[in-house]
Amino acid sequence: QVQLVESGGGLVQAGDSLRLACAASRRTLSGYTTAWFRQPPGKEREFVGGITGSGRTRYYAEPVKGRFTISMNNAKTTLYLQMDSLKPDDTAVYYCATGPRAYGRRPTEYDYWGQGTQVTVSS
């Protein structure tokens, strides 16, 4: 079983930046799609962005395009989410996840999840 642990969340002001990290117990995430999801207060979990196992292709939900950037370390053991120009609407618990299907955007397409890290963006 893959274990994922998110870190880097916190309380920031609108316009600030944060970088989240997701550490994987598996030595390599090659062969998986890894992704970030978020769950705002009182809302359903939603896709943020993903990266294919090769690390060559990244894809994002429209609301975060141009502001958020996904990357992995060379060993493919850590997933990052660089968040710039944060908005109050970005406030959510952020989760990392892995799954076998490329370009997955639905939570049901991912098999393993971290515990989440809280990001709060004040006005």
Describe the structure using short key phrases.
single chain, 123 residues, mainly beta, globular
Biggest sheet statistics: 7 strands, mixed
- Could you tell me the mean pLDDT? 93
Oligomer state equals single chain
What would the principal axes of the Cα set say about the shape? globular
**Binned strand content:** over 45%
The helix tally amounts to 0
Name the structural class.
mainly beta
How big is the Rg? 13 Å
Order of helices and strands: EEEEEEEEEEE
Helix content: under 10%
Care to describe what's here?
By secondary structure, the protein is mainly beta. The mean pLDDT is 93. It is globular and about 40 Å long. The strands form two sheets. Strands 2, 4, 5, 6, 9, 10 and 11 form a seven-stranded mixed beta sheet that branches. It has strands at residues 4-7, 10-13, 18-24, 33-39, 46-51, 58-60, 68-72, 78-83, 92-99, 112-113, 117-122. It starts with a strand and ends with a strand.
In terms of topology, how is this protein built?
Blueprint: E1 4-7, E2 10-13, E3 18-24, E4 33-39, E5 46-51, E6 58-60, E7 68-72, E8 78-83, E9 92-99, E10 112-113, E11 117-122
Parallel strand pairs: 2-11
Antiparallel strand pairs: 1-3, 3-8, 4-5, 4-9, 5-6, 7-8, 9-10, 9-11
